[in-house]
Amino acid sequence: MSEPYTIYVVDDDEAIRRSLSFMLRTSGHMVRLFTGGLEFLKEAGALPPGCVLLDVRMPDMDGLEVQRELRARGITLPVVIMTGHGDVDMAVAAMKAGASDFIEKPFEKAALLACIEAAKTLSLAERGAMARAEEARARLNILTDRERDVLDGLVQGLPNKTIAYDLGISPRTVEIHRANLMQKLEVKSLAEALRIAFHAG
Q: Would you tell me the crossing angle of helices 160-167 and 171-184 to the nearest 10 degrees?
């Protein structure tokens, strides 16, 4: 059973909140409604996984400010910006600030649901990538400085002889470091070791 996925609607327009709530609930989503950015930000840090439908023009705090504040706090909920007519430049700015997507009002139900699904998929992929990167970095932390130097050389595609020359050690010593780092990383092949290095960035 997958974890429940809530849609957080942040819009100062009550009619839009009501219609979105109905549209999303009848499509099987859990929905929580917020009347503005400040109200949403008070709770944002403790909210379970979900997607934020964020209106761009609100009186207390516009969508871009909310978006920036989410990023500043390290909150990784995916954001879909809802824009009125002529706000596309603001939507583009929001995308640059990390929003997953934007959708123009009035929107079709199918387009909205597709937007949410795409944001969810992207968010899950990013969370998976972040978890893999953290795990990979933790695994690399057990290597000695010299083993990391050898791995760096391997990542660059250099042969043992070149790595040895660059580090001022013998090719045989490079082979020993290579064997040690593969043992510590618990990998059987060079490809697996490189994959860990790439995940760690």
A: 100
Task: Give the C-alpha separation, 192 to 187, whole Å.
Answer: 6
Q: Which pLDDT tens digit goes with each residue over 149-175? A: 999 998 888 889 999 999 999 999 999
**Three-state secondary-structure class, residue 52:** strand
β-bridge mates for residue 104, sequence order: 83
Note every long-range contact of 191-200, with CB atoms under 8 Å and residues 24 or more positions apart, other chains counting: 193/151, 193/154, 194/154, 194/155, 196/136, 196/139, 196/140, 197/136, 197/140, 197/151, 197/154, 197/155, 198/155, 199/129, 199/132, 199/133, 199/135, 199/136, 200/133, 200/136, 200/137, 200/139, 200/140
> pLDDT per residue over 113-122, tens digit each?
888 888 888 7
Instruction: Give the integer Cα–Cα distance in Å for 111 and 160.
Output: 54
Counted residue by residue, the chain has a size of: 201
pTM of the model: 0.65
- How far is 102 from 94, CA to CA, in rounded Å? 8
Cβ atoms 150, 177 nearer than 8 A: yes
The CA distance from 74 to 181, in Å, is 33
Type of residue found at 150: V
Helix, coil or strand: residue 31: strand
